Amino acid sequence: MSFGYSVGDFITGANITYRLIRVLADSSGASEEYQEAMLELSAMQQAFLQVSQMTQNPVIPQATVNSASHIVMSAMDIISHFLDRSRRYREKLGGGTNSGGNEGSMSRIEDSWTKVGWSLFKKEELKDLRDRLHSRLSSIQLLLSASA
Prior knowledge:
Strand content: under 5%
Order of helices and strands: HHHHH
Number of strands: 0
Helix content: over 70%
Largest sheet: none
Structural class: mainly alpha
């Protein structure tokens, strides 16, 4: 019984994860929360790629592949949701048009507000993201070790 996930789905998940890694990397001033989230996201990106390779391996039981696929696809939903919320948040902070030739300084001010906003308002959401991804990574590791 197949859940209908394809290699393309996992590649999409890896790409979405990479986009979030880039968003967080661009929010430099990297606090410990950001650094830990980056590590978790990098591990999740690898999980997407490994599960996509698992789907092509006939030795791994189909039930294991289906379970791992379901776990990584749920992680993709979490990452997509976080990425969408953070994009809307950054647009609100950085929104508006610059006028009067001060575009460089306005851009720096907007960038600073974005960073302040991230550090003040997104800290808990970032911790929640890390925790939720970590639990999925642990589940995948447990699943793979049990099937070996």
